[in-house]
Amino acid sequence: MNHRLLQRVLFRMQLDPSFAQSVLNGDADTLTGTGLPSEELVLLRRAPLAGVTADPGHRRRHQVLGNIASEYTLSVAVLTTLFGPEVATEFLESRHFHDAVTLGERLPFAFGQHLQGRCATADPRARGLVRLEMALVEARRSIVDRPAPRASEVVLAPNARVLELPGGTWTVAEQVQTGARFDVTTAAASESDWVLIQSTPAQRPGGLRPVVTEPLQPMVSALLRRTESPWGAEDRGAFARELNVAIDDVDAFLRDLLRERTLVGTLD
User: Fold this and answer.
1) Exposed/middle/buried for 50, CB within 10 Å: 0-12, 13-18, 19+?
2) Based on the domain organization, do 62 and 114 belong to the same domain?
3) What residues make up the domain containing 175?
4) What is the pLDDT of residues 219-248, one digit of tens each?
């Protein structure tokens, strides 16, 4: 008996009663989707629906969904304004939820994919908030694998990433953080927003990495995007000529970023 797979199916059944009903009713597609062999399905289908889905006061459902949605507070606030409160609860009945549990994938990533699908035709700033919070979910759990710089090269630190968002996303994020409702009548900005996301080591083994975000000016974002791969002296000179600034000014700014550990490497 595959105990892990059986536990995952029971977890899906408890959090999605409609899925549980389909299993117990013997729906062929649903049973195939469980991945369980026929003898285990026979045992499972003998269980009473009330026992399998027992969740007094929906406490388990609220706890699981609350933990996941806590990483998407801005997105949920805006999408609730646009589509209603069910935008979050629908996740537990979605293919994103069921596929993630079946494959043992992280539910916060699946929740972000659910929100992306839900707001596919929404205001670009709403989509931008989902993209931002998905990037934060990833930054809390991983760093970026980048080539090591050689002598006189700099590169964006593994714990830093630069993210492009639809214009106006950052402003909406700041407004929603203060408790303001998203105003769909306000026109979105035409230019992209650029954001620096940088994490620090987790405070305990296996814990999430604290993350800070910072909006970037166009010239800064252009510079940091160049450093996503090792950036040498010739590259810096070309960048200075392109922007018609002194190479010494570019290097001085890079030294600041090296001190702040946004970049790693050397200039000399």
Assistant:
1) exposed
2) yes
3) 148-265
4) 999 999 999 999 999 999 999 999 999 999
Domain boundary among 139, 167, 200: 139
201 and 172 belong to one structural domain: yes
Interval 201-205 mean pLDDT: 91
Give the pLDDT band of residue 170 (cuts 50, 70, 90). Answer: very high
- Check whether 86 has a pLDDT greater than 90: yes
Rounded to whole angstroms, the Cα distance separating 148 from 144 reads 12
pLDDT value of residue 1? 61
User: How many structural domains are present in the chain?
Assistant: 2
Q: Quick check: 136 and 70 in contact, CB under 8 A?
A: no
> Rounded mean pLDDT of 131-155?
96
Q: What is the pTM of this model?
A: 0.91
Give the residue with greater pLDDT, 161 vs 43. 161
Final residue in a domain of this structure, among 139, 165, 195: 139
- What pLDDT score does 206 carry? 86
Q: Residue 174: count other Cβ atoms within 10 Å of its Cβ.
A: 12
Which of 75, 65, 20, 78 minimizes the C-alpha distance to 45?
Answer: 20
- Both 115 and 227 in one domain: the answer is no
In this structure, which amino acid lies at residue 224? L
- Domain check: are 8 and 123 in the same one? yes
